[in-house]
Amino acid sequence: SSDRPNIKIGVQKIKYALSSYTDLAFLIPAGFKVDDPPLPKFLIFFDNIPDSISAACALHCRLPCELTDKIKWFNSEMSMSFKEAELEKLTSGETWGLCMMTSFGMLAKILQGMDVPDISLVIQWRATCKLTALWQHFGQAVHDKQLTGMALLFAEKEYFNDERVAKVARKVKR
């Protein structure tokens, strides 16, 4: 169902170089320490495996070494036993976040009934997927209707009206 009033939806302009994943830095507060409370659960959807791995590595750099296993990449090239184990770790809270592709949704369908009710944030990195895929991704947030979650689309600058107007203004000025 698309009737999910407990999911707040937002669109965020990508400000930094796409390959830096700096726009995702907000997920891990600066100076995060081992004894800090765990991060809220999150999923970040990417269009390709290398981007999901690179983003996970960028997020690892913001964590103490002892906690880098809390954020993982997750894709179709991994074994089914690994995927099942990672889904259980996400459900239990042992894993805080996954950088992934659509294969997460497929795994949840295969395991039927195994869902993660408390994913507080779902992000789609770049405006390159179809609308139906975007809604499926966003629908992974807060299956527990008592909770409120957030779904964010991080889109490239060229999709925003203010950027288009500025581009036209620069062109006219030249």
Automatic annotation (TrEMBL):
InterPro entries: P-loop_NTPase (IPR027417). This is ATP-dependent DNA helicase. It comes from Pisolithus microcarpus 441.
